[in-house]
Every structure is written in C-alpha cells, then in structure tokens.
Please model this.
Amino acid sequence: TLMNLIKNISSMKKTLSFGPVFVFCLLFGPAPNAAEPKQVCFSDRCVNVEVVATQEARAKGLQERTSMPADQGMLFIFPENGLYDFWMKDTLIPLDMIWINEHFKIVGIQEGVLPCAADPCPEYKAADVSRYVLEVNDSYARIYGLKVGDEVVFK
Model:
C-alpha cells in the first residue's frame, strides 16, 4: 500500500543518514577531549572545573556567587573559535580570566578583574581567538606563573 511505501522510504532515509555518521565514528572514534573535563591542568597544578557549555549557563557564569574554593574554576566552552568578551556584571568576587585556544594553549590572561561597580561594565577579551575561557580566583595566574603560550591539559 501507499502507506507502507511511505514508511519504508522514511525508514530508508533514517538508515542512510545515520549510516555515514556511524561509519565515520567507527573509523575515527570520538573527538579528542570530547568528554566534559573535570579538571584543567597547567604543568603540575590542576583546577577542578564547573563546565558551562550552553548559552544560558555561559551568560550566568559566576554571577551572584560570594566565594569560590582556591582549587576551583569555571570553564566556559564555546561551540567554535572566536573572540569572546567577558564582563563582571553581578559577579561578586574578583577573578583571573584565562583564554585557551583549540590547541590547548593559553592565548590571553586578564588578571585581577574586579566586580563591576556600575553600568556600563567594562568588557575583557583576549587578542587572539579562543575556544575556552577559564575563570579562577584573583591572583591564580600570578601565583602559579601562568603566561600566554603555556600548554593546558583537560582531564
């Protein structure tokens, strides 16, 4: 019948569109660092991270938090490389911001960013494109000697 023919064609479309993706994944495996990281490491020092990967979570960030443990940070993951601006609207704790590119190298550091006292809040960004931004407590980058060009490992 016509209804069965439509169902068969629909089923074939699903199989055909899924098939190449399955074969690609089977041959090449998952992308590196595809799993959500639990830590971001610099040399022998790691930070436990809270990952924010959705637009809504990235927009909220660390707003309204009154503290963050010394070994903790927030990792912003973006869907593609870009020049990402950050501000401190409604953020209550001073932070260091560390921009990381797709090759897991630091491409920018903004140290000692203070909470925004009044609108308009200043914006901060790296001079180079990044894929990730890590926010940690103020002075972290200075205390541990982080600099542009340093390698980063996600665990």
